[in-house]
Amino acid sequence: MESLIKSQHAQQLGGHSTRAGQTQTTEMVPATTEGLTMSSDESMMLKLIQQTHSPDAREVQVRGLLSLVEDILDRATLDSDDSNASMLPLPTEDKLMQSSMMSVLDSVSYAIDRVACEIAYKSLTGSDAHEITMSVFEHLSSFHWHGKLVLTLAAFALNYGEFWLLVQFHSKNQLAKSLAMLKLVPVQNRVTLESVSHGLNDLIREMKSVTACVVELSELPDRYITLEDPHLSRIISTIPIAVYWTIRSIVACISQINMITAMGHEMMNTQMDSWETSMLANKLKNIHDHLAETLKLCYRHIETQRSSESLKMLHSLFDTTHIDNMKILTALIHPKNHSTPLQDGSTKRKVHLDVLRRKTVLLLISDLDISEDELSIFEQIYTESRRNLLGIDGKSHMPYEVVWVPVVDPIEDYERYPSLQNKFEALREAMPWYTVDSPKLIERHAVEFMRERWHFMNKPILVVLDPQGNEASLNALHMIWIWGTEAFPFTRAREEELWRNETLTLNLIVDGIDSVIFNWINPENYIFLYGGDDLDWIRRFTMAAKATAKDSNVKLEMAYVGKRNHSHREQIRRISEAVRAENLSHSWAEPALMWFFWARLESMLYSKIQLGKSDDQDEVMQGIKKILSYDKLGGWALLSKGAEIVMITHGVIERTVTVYDRTWKTHVPTKGYTKAMYDHHHDEILRETGNPCSHFDFHITSRSGRIPEKMNCFECHRPMEKYMSFACCHDDKLLDQDENYNF
Predict the structure, then answer these.
(1) Segment Disordered: which positions (predicted)?
(2) What percentage of the chain exceeds 90 in pLDDT?
(3) What is the pLDDT of residue 40?
């Protein structure tokens, strides 16, 4: 940063030789930044200050010196026994630090003594404060801005610290008492001493604060803070003025101390005039507030630049071949000084990333609002797979490991809100797999990478990395929901292989969800799956359907599967309870199973789309599209005989079963139950009502990266129009972005 200030100083001052005998001059423009505006007088003063500034190549390490000076000023109070000064921690007695400090002091002690003497002498001879301040700038012309400030503050600490040391020890040490008398320190006049202490405390505090900010600004890396940014350039130009007013405040403090000792006991009954110190304290407070905001701006700028660099490096790392996955995992889960960045879910012990070396790793990436349903089902699948892979040694020999990667964005919220920390701990405690030890280990650039490359948008995704760290799948959750761990190693090739063995049957629709429904599947059983959120429609439909089966002497099983829209969760729960209480049909008591049913259907749709199988000839795709589209309209039903699906239809099926006695009942003996129902439904009912064209919602946040560019309606086969809508989903506590395809 200092080199930038120096560069700007050269541009503003002019005077650089362009040719022999010629100089280039630049008119000074007042620097204006948010929170700090220089007057015309200060602009002229800035020009005078910059004319004294001629730093050489020396770089003084002032950080340690500043710490020493701050310690002196913190302890320099009226009485070390009854003040906070005695409670201050002692500086670290590290020999290496002491050696480094002595090296710095050897190089600057002369300058410190010279400045102390200069201010003391000129203040006693009645010199103007501005004149003394400019004299200090002349004496320290070869130092950088932060060096001038720390050295002048050190000169003040030398003077001020000695004054209070004599005050504190005069009653305990004869040497201190004699020196206090010789230097005319009014040790017996407590009123005067209290006036000095209270009058200067606020100003000294602001002097330290401004100095700390200037030093911190000087330590910022030039690589990221450049004059090409006009806003940063204007900010940097105000640093010399901050240095000027701080040094001028130091001059005022030393002048007041010297005035007391010079006049000695004549000051006994005189109260110090606090107007000047109060004015300077307010001035420095404004400057400090501005510099503090400047630091925040600079750190944000640096963080953005570093994050951009790290993001590029992360992309490059994933495009490079590796012998194992350690570099990849270390870059994503940045351990820094954290030697054990993971927690083992089974033992709750902290472990090193090395436990994942050369293993297939499933990164479960989510924010802290991951749904209980999703987590519950995922845990069941994970636990069952571990149980099935137990060896004779009693240990699980899973070919992969799961790691939860919790994302809190912005990460500052995690520190700010204890509720987020509690939520993280509660979620992690329930997980039997590996978890990242803290969301703070997932840095900003890693989150940005997940959003850019893996299309993470807060909802859970499951990224699969092979033993070398290559991306086997950008989101294998849909494969997990459809086939469980049978989908290992979760590659595209494996997904295609699994689909080649699937057809549109009831087994596919309900596999792995409910053993009750699965046990119904035999050639002699007729099965209705149905959904919707209209309890009256459900009552009419189930009662009429059961009546047709009884009259036709067939065995009919029915199951209510709820509704896809999770924002209706509470309403669906009440309907499900009513279905069970009134014995209308089978219905799941666990909300997670209902969520899983719809998640599997959505996953089948997304899987087909991702594999490019969204055409009209794909039987599975057409069946899934029908269920999801009819669910948007209200009531719907799927009828199967055993595993074979007979029809999938919308709410008018209720009318079909209601008119059984008057219409298709007579055809059951000759056509059979399903054929008679199907023919009447399609030939009579749908001829009157028509089939509604399809309508789909794709939640961008939950299944990003798998939204088709185009889709045909499964009824009329014409291209569907594409719309985007925004819907607030209170269950998920976020704004869902839905992209809707409809005709």
Answers:
(1) 1-28
(2) 37
(3) 65
- Going by their DSSP bridges, the two strands 461-465 and 342-343 should be labelled as unpaired
Distance CA 531, CA 588 (A): 12
User: Residue 32 class from Cβ within 10 Å (0-12 exposed, 13-18 middle, 19+ buried)?
Assistant: exposed
Residue showing tokens 């560019």: 709
Number of structural domains (the chain) is: 3
Tally of residues, the chain: 743
203 and 58 in a single domain? The answer is: yes
Lowest mean pLDDT among 113-117, 347-351, 425-429: 113-117
What is the maximal distance between C-alpha atoms in the chain? 128
How far is 673 from 556, CA to CA, in rounded Å?
10
Name the residue range of residue 187's domain. Answer: 40-77+100-306
Q: Token pair 């999703």 is at which residue?
A: 374
Residue-by-residue DSSP string for 246-278: HHHHHHHHHHHHHHHHHHGGGGTT-PPP-HHHH
pLDDT in tens, 447-479: 999 999 999 988 899 999 999 999 999 999 999
Q: Which residue has the tokens 């990460």?
A: 411
Q: Tens digit of pLDDT for each residue in 121-169? A: 888 787 888 899 999 899 888 888 888 999 999 999 888 887 777 777 7
DSSP 8-state class, residue 681: I
Q: Is residue 89 part of a domain?
A: no
User: What's the rounded Cα separation, in Å, for the pair 680 and 675?
Assistant: 9
Same domain, 514 and 619: yes
Helix, strand and coil in the chain, % to nearest 5: 55, 15, 30
Between 549 and 37, the more confident residue is 549
Residue from 441, 424, 446, 603 nearest 509 by CA: 603
Pair (336, 298) in one structural domain: no
Amino acid at 92: T
**The two structure tokens encoding residue 89:** 């921690």
pTM (predicted TM-score): 0.74
The kind and range of the H/E element at 202 are helix 190-218
Residues 346-351, mean pLDDT to the nearest whole number? 92
Residue with tokens 């509604």: 692
Give the pLDDT confidence score for residue 81 in this predicted structure.
47
What tokens appear for 30 in the block?
């007042």
**Phi and psi for 225 in degrees, rounded to 5?**
-105, 105
DSSP state of 487: G
pLDDT digits (tens, 9 = 90+) for 238-262: 889 999 999 999 998 888 777 766 6
Q: Which residues contact 374 (CB under 8 A, 6 or more apart)?
A: 460, 595, 599
Q: Determine what percent of the chain is predicted with pLDDT higher than 70.
A: 74
Give me the CATH number covering residue 339: 3.40.30.10
- Among candidate residues 218, 210, 291, 215, the one with its CA nearest the CA of residue 249: 210
Which residues, 6+ apart, have CB-to-CB distance to 120 below 8 Å? 159, 254, 258
Considering only residues 688 and 552, tell me which one the structure prediction assigns the higher pLDDT. Answer: 552
Contact 239, 31 (CB under 8 A): no
Q: How many angstroms separate the Cα of 416 from the Cα of each of 226, 411, 412, 458, 730?
A: 31, 9, 6, 20, 23
Report the pLDDT averaged over residues 421-437: 94
Please indicate, yes or no, whether residues 689 and 557 belong to a single structural domain of this protein: yes
Same domain for 599 and 474: no
86-121 pLDDT, tens digit each: 445 545 555 545 666 677 777 788 888 898 888 888
Q: Same domain, yes or no, for 232 and 368?
A: no
